Amino acid sequence: MGAPYYRDSNGMMGYGAQPMGDNYNIAPAVWVGVANSVTVNYVDQNGNVLSPPTQTAVNKGGSFTLDSIPGITGYEYHQWRDENGTVQSGSDISIENVNQSQNIYLIYRPVVTVKYLKQVSDQYIAIDGVADTKHAVDYGTTFTLSSPPKISGHVYYRWWDGVSANDPVASPVSVANITAPETVYLIYQTARTVTVNYVDVNGVLLDIDSGTTGVQSTTQYDVANGSNFSLTDIPEISGYGYLHWLDADSAVRNDSPISITNVTSNTDLYVVYGFSVPVQVQKSVTTGNSADKAEDFSFTISFETASGTPFNAGKKISYIGGTVSGTAATPPASGEFTLDSNAAATFTLRHGQLIEIADLPPGTMVKVEENLEPTSIFTATSVFTKQSGADATSCDAGFELTGLDELPAICVYTNQRKVPVPSGVDVAPIDSMLLWAVVLAVSGLAWFGIRRRRQWTH
């Protein structure tokens, strides 16, 4: 216990036994109490002393408050522990009703300081304008930095632990068993910028979010001087489909992924998209009666990618039902195909009906066939309306969606009724009008022969 202090009625401090007021004509003194001390210790999480302790005298029954937490180079305050060993969080350090001297402990954690350097020839110098970052870690743990921060105009290269005998390494930043302050150095190289531009076939920049044109839409990538660049993910753009890419020399490239080697200067690449165009299949019956025009005609449609790979089995493709202009047909119901193992699906159309498939990517190979049996009473012809750059001449042979313009690819199938041929006559199917002409000619000759015979018998 400390010595007793008192203050008399005149405000004077005394030490030892308090004098009697009656004998010395002094007003009774006010008891102050016993002086205690609070000792503040500065330690790490393992109890190691980091800085000399400080003491503060506190009157008996008084309170103690630490106005500010001292900083210790290389460490960061974490928490504190009272006389009883209870760990307290926060920075409000105070004790009420101090009746005896006691110790408290301010606990600090070691700090890992990260410095950012750039490589210039065989030297490493600080990157202008980039401040150090500090990371407090628990005693004895491992510090890792899985993703070095991006720095404009630079690209991350390697890291160094600061030990002169060690070389910078390319492995992830990791320092094990940290028991004291550490410094690591992240080394960057001056970047070369690869700018990827997303354009349509006319060179118009596309907005990769909405597909609208006229919007500046580019993505920039920083790569180390002399390193390689690769773009594996090509974004989808509504209303368009990827066609090819142009390298720094504007050469058309179809290889995948998009990649260039040994980037030593800022480079522009162009990812080119074609228009996603609709495909229409139309049906027309030009001869026959009303029952013929109400008949369902079966079709098969199949799809392949630009590389010749069939679409995946089970893929669903939506279509919209419509009518051919100038007909009074009822449109077929809209729906979707589910492709079979041959990447194909079947559907039916009547006279004046059509289906339209939208948003097929450019480069898609489409083949449409009408499923007429050899014994069918109808003939069938198909006409393909070309897109720009398409070289197909019929729908049966298949055609490519070039994506060079927004014009639809249209397959028009026309059916005509065959004229019945007498049993035993083996003829190839011919145009019905020609067959009718033959029948009429034969009938005329027969009639002429009958009249001549009648004349000879008279």
How would you portray this structure in words?
The chain is mainly β and 458 residues long. It has 4 domains: 33-108, Putative peptidoglycan bound protein (lpxtg motif) (Ubiquitin-like (UB roll)); 110-190, Ubiquitin-like (UB roll) (Roll), CATH 3.10.20; 193-275, Ubiquitin-like (UB roll); 277-417, Collagen-binding surface protein Cna, B-type domain (Immunoglobulin-like). 7% of the residues lie in helices and 48% in strands. It has helices at 21-24, 290-293, 432-457; strands at residues 4-7, 13-15, 30-44, 49-59, 62-65, 75-81, 87-88, 94-98, 102-120, 123-126, 133-136, 141-145, 154-160, 173-178, 182-200, 218-224, 227-231, 240-246, 252-253, 258-263, 267-275, 277-285, 297-304, 316-323, 335-338, 344-349, 353-360, 365-370, 378-385, 399-400, 409-417. The strands form 6 sheets. It has a 15-stranded mixed β-sheet that branches. Strands 25-24-27-22-31-29 form a 6-stranded mixed β-sheet, with no helix packed on it. Strand 9 and strand 10 (123-126) form a beta hairpin. The protein is elongated and about 125 Å long.
Describe, in short, the structure shown.
With 458 residues, the chain is mostly beta strands.
Keywords:
458 residues, mainly beta, Ubiquitin-like (UB roll), 4 domains, 15-stranded mixed sheet, six-stranded mixed sheet, 31 strands, 7% helix, 48% strand, elongated, disordered C terminus
CATH architecture assignment name of the largest domain:
Sandwich
Approximately what portion of the residues adopt beta-strand conformation? over 45%
Mean pLDDT metric? 83
Q: Which percent range fits the helix content? A: under 10%
- The CATH homologous superfamily of the largest domain corresponds to Collagen-binding surface protein Cna, B-type domain
